[in-house]
Write a structure and sequence with these properties.
The structure holds 3 protein chains of 3 kinds.
Chain A (H helix, E strand, L loop, with lengths): L15 E4 L5 E8 L5 E5 L21 E5 L16 H14 L5 E6 L1 H12 L4 E7 L10 H5 L7 H11 L8 H10 L5 H11 L1 H4 L17 E6 L18 E5 L6 H4 L1 H11 L2
Parallel strand pairs in A: 3-4, 3-5, 5-6, 6-7, 7-8
Antiparallel strand pairs in A: 1-2, 2-4
Helix pairs in contact in A: 1-2, 4-5
Chain B lengths: L1 H15 L21 H15 L14 H10 L2
Chain C lengths: L11 E4 L2 E4 H14 L5 E5 L3 H14 L2 E5 L10 E2 L19 E4 L9 E4 L1 H4 L11 E3 L7 H13 L2 E3 L7 H10 L4 E4 L1 H11 L8 E4 L6 H10 L4 E8 L3 E6 L6 E2 L7 E3 L4 E6 L2 E12 L2 E7 L4 E3 L2 E3 L1 H8 L5 E11 L3 E10 L5 H12 L10 E5 L15
Helix pairs in contact in C: 1-2, 5-6
Classes of the chains: A alpha/beta, B mainly alpha, C alpha/beta.
Chain lengths: 275, 78, 395
Amino acid sequence: MSVAVARPPSRKIDFRYLRGLSGGPVCYLEMGKPDAPPLVFLHGFGGDLLTWHYCLVGFVSRFRVIAVDLPGHGRSTLDVGAGTLAEMVAWTDATLTALGIDGAHLVGHSMGGKIAIALALAHPDRVRSLQLISPAGLGGPFDLALLTRFLDCATPETALDLASRLVGSASSALLGTLAKSLVTGKDQGPRQAAFAALLGNAATIGSSIGEHGVPWDRIACPVQVIWGAEDKILPLPEPSRLPPGARLTILPGVGHLPQIESPGRVVPLLDRFLP
Amino acid sequence: MIERVVAELQRILADKGETHGPITAGSLLLDGDLPIDSLDLATLVVALEEQTGREPFRAGFRMFTTVGELATLFDEAA
Amino acid sequence: MSLPAWLHPDFRLTDDAGTATAADLTRAATRLADELPLWDRAGLAATDARAILTALLAAEARQTDLFLIRDATAGAEIGYRIEGDAVFEVAPDAPDGTGLVWLQTSGSTGRPKWVSHPPEALRGHIAAGQPHARWLLSYAAGGFAGLQVILSAAIGGHHLLVPSDHAGIGDLAALAVKHRITHLSGTPTFWRAFLMALGAETLPLATVTLGGEAADQALLDLLRAKFPQARLRHLYATTELGTVFSVADGRAGFPAAWLENDLAITEYGTLAVRRDGRLQDTGDRVARVEDRVLFRGRLDAMVNIGGVKIWPEEVETHLLHLPFLRDALVTTKPNPITGSILIAELVLADPETQALCEPLVKAHLALLPRAARPAMIRYKTALPTGQTGKKLRMP
């Protein structure tokens, strides 16, 4: 006797999709109050929207919370074009429009931080506030070789080694689980091509926005910066590269992934900065 | 009871991202076509105990191999 | 006969009965010491901080062994009954009249037993510090941790606030805010609940102390964020050994460098402490990770799940990394197929977010090996705690 039963709802994460700029999919996660001010999270190179999954719930009572997979990452399109910053900004701008967003509070990590800064420069009306977690694009040193290792992180051993360079000394308990997520995130072929395009185009990841550093005077919205004291990939640059007058919080014992390593500290910092 | 067992099995399989064929009373729970192992089976039993409030294994293990046999054990445990 | 000199003249204690000064306590302790005949042993039902402090002073003056009784069934026949109506059987190897203070172990696993401390040893880890701090007692008064707080305040000349017996966590938070408490010590379970009860209120805390359970990094981070100006430390102590060490660097566990001194890791992976010339096994599992030694839970808490060895407290620590959980408890349940399985009980910071949090919890648990993932997750509004403020782990 075969029994026909309605499929029970899955307890998986509710990824949503829309059509992006080039026609490919944009994967995003949305929660909170649909009519509240939008709060948009942009992850970093090699990551995806789940980078933020420890942080999002804290904001659902006050905001329309959205985390997006950037091109080449997560479940979004693998088409990154030539991998330039301008293309990433245009893609993000179009995504906000497709989500029905005029202006949003942005939180950006690493490469996502650089995209957020560039968006604020190109479209000031889009960005109500800017919170940057170890953002790229300020100029100053970054470890390109380390980032390149994302391209061939095939075995648990290499994943563990990469993980140990990503996090700070206070986060040693996370190493095993982080390494596991690094290995499972690796696909061959098209994704590696997308990563290579983004990396190869230094303008997207490494070098500074603007010849002499970020022109912070052209950004009108409030800005806050958070950085791990032990960031080996993108160390804190010298003070002249930081937004003048902006609050800077340095987290001891934390590496390049503050929002994963220490959400208990990051979430209150983000929360108190928002209106 | 069979419907409950099937529904819970489907939920476990969906969580694992596994596809499967139709589940019948005669479906083997282990060593059959269903992509589940002993940990999944243990989870199934716990979920059914929680939902029904019954404990067919309180006095010790009792043998079952199919969906129907498991459902019967729960039906009999009042 | 004179009272011991460690009671600071500026000490004050406020409880339901009002405020007692050091002078008040001195008078009460002198009266008690005069009434105490030259008995070898005295017992006190250990619930009242004021009575305990009075008894500590009087018993030390008389060199009388003092038994702080929390659980009547563990038993102690006492020579002089200070409070309470029952007579108990004496612990057979109790020495006579050396002025020891006897505490019952917390009994979170198995039957409580008696452990003795010379009074000086009880005070050993306490430095006077600056007076006129305001302490709130969050522990049971008659346990080791509670005594440490009471003695710290008494020696330091501080003001100790003692909540009433029926005070809930909300009452403690309100009391702390009202009196602008500057020093607070509690178990990690207490702190998680206290942070929630405190909400947006602030406290001028100068020290934040944790003890009684392993402090996980997620909680230490939360406390650092909430009280950035406070000195944050967690203590490792057992009822048998007293305070073993204190860690103040904001990180969970302790520095691996300390393993060269009086600490060692046994062949079973447990922490051993060198005391009285020999290594004493604490039964607490630890693991060395780079420059740190982290706590992993009780050795005897291990369960076998489908042939895999799992320690439920490790799963708990992993869950507590999620900032939207207020607390988590992972216990085991017998299972006909795998022997045991894990059950997780979670308390959300905001119960309304349960539907959102469930898939995130599952995704986070997916980072663990399969056998370590709880087979059942229940969402609760609170977790049961025992007298000591620690989570109750026995079913």
